[in-house]
Design a protein that fits this description.
It is built from six helices and nine strands, in the order E-H-E-E-H-H-E-H-E-H-E-E-H-E-E. With about 260 residues, it is of the alpha+beta class. Strands 1-3-2-9-5-7-6-4 form an eight-stranded antiparallel beta barrel, surrounded by five helices. It has a single domain, classed as Alpha-Beta Plaits. Helix content is about 35%, strand content about 30%. Helix 2 packs across helix 3.
């Protein structure tokens, strides 16, 4: 009998976190938890993406020079929740993933060095970005597939824990779902969780599910499974654990991995 995976997947773009980010003292595995810096960005009037990309290249050079390299990802909405009534208001989402201590070190140098402040001014001239911090965790992943290319797709699904449900119950359910994913990934190469922290008061849920797919054909395998009975598990998850907003899908580009 086919086992349907219940997870309410959501597209978020920090999914391609490379082993290189956490190479020191971690061998071939990612840490259980890591920092996720989210930047909701909109280009300013007159600014071009080409100019913005050049500024990013200068930032990466700066991060190498100051020993604060992070995994840098950009996601662009493809199938979003936007419509003619309401809009998310950003052009793209950037994710900077790293160990927590490294993120703090990077910000200390960004705010205290002349070169860092110069880049910060250039960044503000080109785009308006709202910066948030969250806690990330890889629940399951095919690390070889995640690290094999830099162009893929992600889904985000923001969820809020139901009344009377404890966080520990949700964690236990996710652990059970991981075992089902191992048996049948349904096109996924990664499943991550995100909990909003600094600046996250207006987040659309208590946590987000992020699923990573190598291409759109793989992403549609997940949609097919929902149509063929997976919707039952999704319904039960929302009834028993957390109510979810629904998936949106973004294209993802890995701009930089530490050590490249």
């Amino acid at each position: 009998m086919k086992k349907y995976i219940l997870l309410p997947l959501f597209a978020f773009a920090f999914v391609s976190i490379s082993n290189a980010v956490f190479a020191d003292d971690h061998g071939d595995s990612l840490p259980s938890g890591f920092n996720v810096q989210l930047q909701l960005c909109k280009l300013n009037d007159g600014a071009t993406l080409s100019q913005y990309n050049k500024m990013n290249a200068d930032y990466i050079k700066w991060s190498k020079k100051n020993d604060v390299e992070v995994t840098f990802i950009r996601q662009t909405p493809l199938f979003s929740h936007d419509d003619f009534i309401q809009s998310s208001g950003y052009d793209f989402l950037e994710i900077l993933a790293s160990p927590f201590a490294l993120s703090g070190k990077a910000w200390d140098k960004w705010l205290s060095t002349k070169e860092g402040q110069k880049l910060n001014k250039e960044w503000n001239n080109l785009a308006t970005c709202h910066v948030k911090m969250g806690g990330g965790r890889m629940l399951w992943g095919d690390e070889e597939a995640l690290n094999s290319d830099s162009e893929r797709y992600v889904t985000w699904n923001w969820c809020s824990i139901n009344d009377g449900v404890q966080v520990e119950e949700v964690i236990k359910e996710h652990a059970r779902l991981v075992e089902l994913v191992k048996e049948d990934p349904q096109g996924m190469i990664g499943w991550f969780g995100l909990v909003p922290r600094l600046g996250g008061a207006n987040a659309p849920g208590d946590f987000a599910h992020i699923a990573v797919f190598p291409d759109l054909e793989s992403a549609m395998k997940r949609q097919e499974s929902l149509s063929e009975g997976g919707w039952i598990g999704y319904r039960d998850y929302q009834r028993d654990f957390a109510t979810c907003r629904g998936e949106q899908l973004l294209s993802e580009q890995v701009i930089h991995r530490p050590g490249e």
